[in-house]
Amino acid sequence: MAATSSSSSAGESTQANSKWLDAHYDPVANLYAFSSCVTLADLHGDGEYKLVVGDLGTSWHDMKLKVYRGTDLLSENALPDMPASVAAFLMEQHEPRTPAVAVASGPFVYVYKNLRPYFKFTLPPMEINPLEKDVWEQAKEDKIDPLSLKEMLEMIREKAEIPLSVRSLRFLALEPPEMGAFVNQYKMQPIKRQTVITCMATLKKNMADEDAISCLVIGMESNEILVLDPEAFTILARMTVPSVPTFLDVMGQFDVEYRMTVACRNGCVYIFRRDSKRPKYSIELSSQPVGLVRVQKNIVAACSDQTLQGYTQKGKKLWTVSLPATPMTMSLMEQKSRGFQAVLVALANMEVHMYQDKSLVTVIRTQDVVTSICYGCYGREDNTLVMTTKGGGLIIKILKRTAVFDRGDASTGVPTAQSIKLNVPKKTKLYVDQTLRERECSVAMYQVFQMELNRIRLQATRTYAQALESSLTPITETLQEPLKMNAVVQGIGPTFKLTLHLQTTSATRPAINLLISFLYDEGLYYMARPFFKAPMLVPGLNYPLETFVECLSDKGISDVIKVFVLREGESAPLLMAHINMPVSEGLAAA
Amino acid sequence: MGLFDKLAGWLGLKKKEVNVLCLGLDNSGKTTIINKLKPSNAQTQDIVPTIGFSIEKFKTSSLSFTVFDMSGQGRYRNLWEHYYKEGQAIIFVIDSSDKLRMVVAREELDTLLNHPDIKHRRIPVLFFANKMDLRDAVSSVKVCQLLSLESIKDKPWHICASNALKGEGLQEGVDWLQGQIQATKT
Ligand SMILES: Nc1nc2c(ncn2[C@@H]2O[C@H](COP(=O)(O)OP(=O)(O)OP(=O)(O)O)[C@@H](O)[C@H]2O)c(=O)[nH]1
Ligand SMILES: [Mg+2]
């Protein structure tokens, strides 16, 4: 089954055997959004979930908050500025429990109830540079002209620790003729310095229920994170991040314990706990994150260097997978009925890959590059995948009721052999004792070992030297004439057959002009041919050379016969062997 | 069937019993339809999503129906197949205004029609394209097309547009079903 399913699920998602049903595709839905601006919520409390999109539009003035019911647009609200994030959250306890929609945009959070504007939260103003304030004060009283105002502001911009307000920065960008009008228009208004919201998430206040009231968590350009009270919109907590937060994931409850994972523009991920004003753990990603998702307790980030990386909640790196194309966005996929969680990553090559940990589970091909993914309950269908595309299209797919995903369905995962458990036997008492002993007497053991080792080396070297001196090796030393010999004695006596196996170990050159000579006690043995010429030795062939030895003694004694392999015209043997002759039993018995 | 039963049947004293399965996605209006087919004094006012299934009875001029009103919720849909063997007719209800889930209805219908207990039987299937009163409902012809009902060749089928809240279109469907059952049984 593994083989067939892996090939079918990996790519052919457009076919009938796909796990997804194509519920809707509108290539001209005119929806331009990022994942942070798309959410699903039961806005009317009727069990039918709506799609809420903060639409960026195509120009500077058609940003909208759009709500879809099924395949149709239900309502539209114009937004005054670019939405940074959209979230649905329950503000209060009392019935009907319909969630409000929060749209973060610029320095504001617009809250909609029943799809009507309800409340606008403004970020607290930031400290203003006193020098800048003074300068504008003077301008207000017409004590300085616009050109010297410009000069002084430029000086402040160079030196000051507190940056200039937006008004001053805009003023500095003006051409001299426009300056006077600008000063006159704004000098009466007090200067303000404000930051903008970069990301937003929700955090349950004090209950874990699905429909518990939630706080808004806001990440700001000023390297800060705020937690807002759901009813009064007061600031409950404020945290400082080392860089500008871009993605937020929050789990837990504000009043009990929570964990905030913040991906920042500097390519780092910071993890905060309740009561920690500063990050508790930090992760340095290999490049800028394009998305951050928490799968159970692990953190998964897609990075712009075409990788997907998994970390534990304490920031320990678990794995990295390289992606076939640049990731665009990512989202969590959760099939609650089967307790299955995975990560959906949209890629620039018009594919959406689904990963469970580091194994690719399935690939969905789309008609256009997907820029936002939202997975969850839509309409009345629990497992719906809602995607918007670069060209403004809307794709809705529904997971089949019968669909089951296997880990590593689509190849490229951990090889199965890696997860097989080896049958390692239990530790015996002997083993434990030995380990203890090793631990206690390690120094002595090491010394003994070293001494024995040196002895062995000495012994080996001595024997070797001796062998060299007497050419007593069965293998020649000279490189010109590499020879190998061994001798076999056969028979029980008084006549023995002595076979010498001679071979040249050179790969190419035959050995020629070799002589064989035997040295023995002539009172004890008789040999018909104690001296003869060896044939030419062709490389790779083994030459058995046979001679017969007769034992002359009947006293049951034996001696050594020495064999020399010599080269014609040289007195030093090339090779020498001692043959220990067996006792002649034939004669003794006779 | 004994002579007495037959006599009773002719005289309309005892009606022939038929088991009907009422299937369709959750919220399509199955329970509302069955409720409307019951005599007005037996109808309930508040209809809640069905859990598991419920058994309802109602009578027409010549038949006595026992309906298995199955829950359409995803987690209960795997119960359906256990009742396929007993069913002598199928009522399949579609929410015509739920365009998003037409694919899901189609998928469930395909699974149903290809089930071994159904596939080779000439069992009549009545479709209700329900919630016709809603503004964004599609026509019954469109429902027919979206579910590709034309491809059902080996079973008698019929589709009616209906409004279960007012009871419109229900009688037409039940009349057809009664005709089909009598045609096969007698
Ligand atoms: N407008 C309109 N609403 C309808 C119609 N039929 C049913 N409804 C409503 O649809 C909702 C669901 O109806 P049910 O009969 O409970 O649906 P069901 O198919 O039995 O659902 P499950 O039991 O969950 O499978 C109820 O609120 C009904 O009032 C109809 O023809 N028109
Ligand atoms: Mg019901």
UniProtKB/TrEMBL annotation, chain A:
Which domain of life does the protein's organism represent? Eukaryota
Question: What are the residue boundaries of the Bardet-Biedl syndrome 1 protein GAE domain, all occurrences included?
Answer: 483-585
UniProt keyword Cell inner membrane present: no
Q: Which GO terms describe its biological process?
A: non-motile cilium assembly; protein localization to cilium; protein transport; retina homeostasis; sensory perception of smell; visual perception
Ranges in coiled-coil conformation: none
Alphabetized, the UniProt keywords read: Acetylation, Cell membrane, Cell projection, Cilium, Cilium biogenesis/degradation, Cytoplasm, Cytoskeleton, Membrane, Olfaction, Protein transport, Sensory transduction, Transport, Vision
User: Which Pfam families does the UniProt entry name for this protein?
Assistant: BBS1 (PF14779), GAE_BBS1 (PF23304)
Gene Ontology MF, one: smoothened binding
Compartments where located: Cell projection, Cilium membrane; Cytoplasm, Cytoskeleton, Microtubule organizing center, Centrosome, Centriolar satellite
Supply one GO CC term from the record: BBSome
- Where is each Bardet-Biedl syndrome 1 N-terminal domain found? 20-273
Q: Quaternary structure per UniProt?
A: Part of BBSome complex, that contains BBS1, BBS2, BBS4, BBS5, BBS7, BBS8/TTC8, BBS9 and BBIP10. Interacts with the C-terminus of RAB3IP. Interacts with CCDC28B and ALDOB. Interacts with PKD1.
Name of the protein in question: BBSome complex member BBS1
Q: Which gene encodes it?
A: BBS1
Automatic annotation (TrEMBL), chain B:
InterPro entries documented for this protein? Arl6, P-loop_NTPase, Small_GTP-bd, Small_GTPase_ARF, Small_GTPase_ARF/SAR
Q: Identify the main location.
A: membrane
* Membrane topology, from the record: Peripheral membrane protein
Q: Which domain of life is it from?
A: Eukaryota
Query: What is one Gene Ontology biological process annotated in the Swiss-Prot or TrEMBL record?
Result: cell projection organization
Q: Which GO molecular function, any one, fits this protein according to its record?
A: GTPase activity
Q: Does the keyword Hydrolase apply?
A: no
Which of this chain's residues are annotated to bind GTP? G24, L25, D26, N27, S28, G29, K30, T31, G72, N130, K131, M132, D133
Q: Kindly list the places in or outside the cell where this protein is found, as annotated in its UniProt entry.
A: Cell projection, Cilium membrane; Cytoplasm, Cytoskeleton, Cilium axoneme; Cytoplasm, Cytoskeleton, Cilium basal body
For this protein, the record's SUPFAM superfamilies field holds: P-loop containing nucleoside triphosphate hydrolases
Instruction: Provide the alphabetized UniProt keywords.
Output: Cell membrane, Cell projection, Cilium biogenesis/degradation, Cytoplasm, Cytoskeleton, GTP-binding, Lipoprotein, Magnesium, Membrane, Metal-binding, Myristate, Nucleotide-binding
Protein family per UniProt: Belongs to the small GTPase superfamily. Arf family.
Write the protein's name.
Answer: ADP-ribosylation factor-like protein 6
Organism of provenance = Eublepharis macularius (Leopard gecko)
